[in-house]
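Researcher: Going back to the complex we discussed earlier. I've cleaned up the inputs and rechecked each line, so this should be the final set. Can you rerun the prediction on the complete assembly and write out the structure?
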Amino acid sequence: MDIKDLVKYAKEAMQNSYSPYSKYKVGTALICKNGKVYTGCNVENHGIMSICAERVAFTKAISEGEKEFDFIVICGGYDINNLEECLPCGYCRQFISEFVSSDFKIYTVDNKENIKEYKIKDLLPYSFKI
Ligand code: ZN
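Model: Rerun complete. Updated structure for the full complex:
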């Protein structure tokens, strides 16, 4: 499965976003090394209990027993027809780093369908580790 297929999944997930407060919708598609795909969307809540689309996809996958991840695609914006490049927040960078190698790739998509590639080690070079 290539990145463009994953972009489609991420956009579909973005449509399920529950974001009445920020109005900012995010969808993700996480592909595992075995080829399975887990999607996620941001789910907001009163106070500080919101969860980002990246952590939703990872927790769905991990709760199903997945342990090896290939890459993740992130779509975000106020309007699904006008995507903005959306990078993981600090919480998600730390969270993701727990489960992947330092070369794990993160792809973003903008409103012209340009895809950019990042590595977790570049987004979070000094992750917290015990
Ligand atoms: Zn986040």
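Model: Worth noting: The CA atoms of residues 30 and 58 lie 7 Å apart.
Researcher: Good, that matches what I expected from the previous run.
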